[in-house]
Design goal:
Structural class: alpha/beta
Pfam family, one: Bac_DnaA
Distance between the termini: 44 Å
Shape: globular
Largest sheet: 5 strands, parallel
Main location: cytoplasm
Bound molecules: adenosine-5'-triphosphate
CATH topology of the largest domain: Rossmann fold
CATH architecture of the largest domain: 3-Layer(aba) Sandwich
CATH class of the largest domain: Alpha Beta
Number of domains: 4
Number of helices: 24
Subunit structure: Oligomerizes as a right-handed, spiral filament on DNA at oriC.
Strand order of the largest sheet: 5-6-7-4-8
GO molecular function, one term: lipid binding
Subcellular location: Cytoplasm
């Protein structure tokens, strides 16, 4: 497909988009509902959003799931480029042709939903939300019966291959372990757990294992699932009395790849089901590979019996890449995606983005897409202009408690005075605790000093707030998204002041 879409192509794109969006988790949908697909150019889908913040979210946390969903819906590997169209929100609301169910409330009125934080993420009632509906993709289902051992059924992203993975000192061991497991599933290390900060290649390695296994053992049954999908599957199965089918689905697998197991924390029924799945597979020497944002022993609210099992096999980490590896990653990315960028631009980007490979790639795509759309090629000067918001570590602007309180107040329905008051209404307490947590995260202030700022509270109150928000963020994507969004706003304000 090309630029200049006719009405039917436009409608087709809108349908594809909707299908892809329907498969996303509620936490991701929050960010996507107001986006609009503009055009598909080769394998790049350009999507418009109304503000910087939404773009940042689509380019970071939401990107992997969204690109995966679109690639599946289009049956071709597709990359996402996000542009900003400020008037978009109104025009979309007028048309109202996108799904604006449930999650909208989160985005516009985050604190009002506090009552639901205590529950596990509930999938939409929409039938399409059942992940089974989507794999193999709708197009494939119409024409062919299910086969075993396909990339689509395994839910693997075609882009995440070992060939595309750049090895450096930060990930050498994790890569070697992943290859070993793929070559001898169930024999080398079982389970294999890969942990590390966001955007350092854990998901990539997980999918690469799946591809390699399918290459070496084409009839094997491989399945990738993230922990939120697993949770949704468990909730649906219990609600619909389909637990036997659920058991079959996850236990008739040779290689189970589970992403982001930290989201199992605090979800009892899901943990129980996962425990039994784990045992059933492990007993039969089926391979289990998992990723986590921290080592299993630090998943403190996970049941002991699960945590113990996670440590039966091999645990390895991925670290942020050094400058040389970052440049090599950008080079590979540029070559794979046929993006033209001179060496000094790649070095500029690699020097600015130090801790997250997803952001590293996002910056390259943003700079080259901008040049493309303007019919020019990217050079250092253009890259510096387009990426002026990238601030290397060490150059971070100072953030004050005042800024945090002002932004939290503006984001919630409360005033700064409310945040400092003794009022303990439920929503206000959450807003206050988030603000305290952010003071802990974004400033060097001590606990007593933070307490003082919030109406002379005791340091133990701040400590409690900090713990509580950390826990909620690990358990609830909605809270995670709100805190991320607020953090972005605060940083943006700090840069401007
Ligand atoms: N060593 C690498 N070589 C090439 N690309 C990489 C490498 N590491 C990460 N990437 C790319 O960076 C992006 C982010 O990686 P990935 O999604 O695997 O991170 P993650 O650790 O799973 O993050 P999260 O915890 O947020 O899910 C992906 O597009 C991936 O292909």
């Amino acid at each position: 497909m090309n630029d200049g879409l006719g009405a039917s192509a436009e409608q087709h794109l809108a349908e594809i988009w909707q299908r892809a969006v329907d498969t996303l988790s509620p936490g991701a949908k929050v960010w996507v509902y107001s986006a609009k697909p503009l055009t598909l150019h080769n394998n790049i889908l350009i999507v418009a959003v109304q503000d910087d913040l939404t773009r940042a979210q689509l380019e970071s946390r939401v990107r992997p799931a969204l690109e995966h969903a679109i690639s599946m819906a289009l049956q071709q590997e597709t990359r996402l480029v996000v542009t900003i169209e400020p008037g978009l929100s109104e025009s979309l609301h007028q048309q109202d042709d996108m799904s604006t169910k449930g999650p909208v409330t989160y985005a516009t009125d985050p604190y009002r939903r506090e009552a639901s934080y205590g529950q596990e993420a509930e999938p939409d009632d929409d039938e399409d939300d059942d992940s089974d509906e989507f794999v193999p993709s709708w197009a494939e289902r119409k024409t062919s019966p299910p086969r075993i051992g396909t990339v689509a059924e395994a839910r693997l992203n075609p882009r995440y291959l070992f060939e595309n993975f750049v090895i450096g000192s930060s990930n050498r061991f994790a890569h070697a372990a992943a290859v070993a497991v793929a070559e001898a599933p169930g024999k080398a290390y079982n389970p294999l757990v890969i942990h590390g900060e966001s955007g350092l290649g854990k998901t990539h390695l997980l999918h690469a294992i799946g591809h390699y296994v399918l290459n070496l053992y084409p009839s094997s049954r491989v399945r990738y699932v993230n922990s939120e999908e697993f949770t949704n599957d468990v909730i649906n199965a219990i609600r619909e009395n389909r637990t036997a089918a659920l058991k079959r689905k996850y236990r008739e697998i040779d290689v189970l790849l589970v992403d982001d197991i930290q989201f199992l924390e605090g979800k009892e029924s899901t943990q129980t089901e996962f425990f039994h799945t784990f045992n059933a597979l492990h007993n039969e020497n089926k391979q289990i590979v998992m990723t986590s944002d921290r080592p299993p022993k630090n998943l403190t609210t996970l049941e002991d019996r699960l945590r113990n099992r996670f440590e039966w096999g091999l645990t390895t980490d991925v670290q942020p890449p050094d400058l040389e590896t970052r440049i090599a990653i950008l080079r590979k990315k540029a070559a794979n995606e046929k993006l033209t960028a001179p060496a000094d631009v790649l070095e500029f980007i690699a020097s600015k983005v130090q801790t997250n490979i997803r952001e590293l790639e996002g910056a390259l795509i943003r700079a080259t897409a901008f040049a493309n759309l303007n019919g020019t090629t990217v050079d250092l000067q253009l890259a510096q202009i387009v990426l002026k918001d990238l601030i290397a570590e060490g150059e971070e602007p100072d953030i004050t408690a005042g800024m945090i309180m002002a932004q939290t107040a503006a984001y919630s329905e409360f005033s700064i005075d409310d945040l400092c008051s003794t009022n303990r209404s439920r929503n206000l307490v959450l807003a206050r605790q988030i603000a305290m947590y952010l003071c802990r995260e974004l400033t060097d202030m001590s606990l007593p000093k933070i307490g003082q700022e919030f109406g002379n509270r005791d340091h133990t109150t701040v400590m409690h707030a900090d713990r509580k928000i950390r826990k909620l963020m690990a358990e609830k994507h909605a809270v995670y998204n709100q805190v991320t969004e607020l953090t972005a706003r605060i940083k943006q304000q700090a840069r401007q002041s």
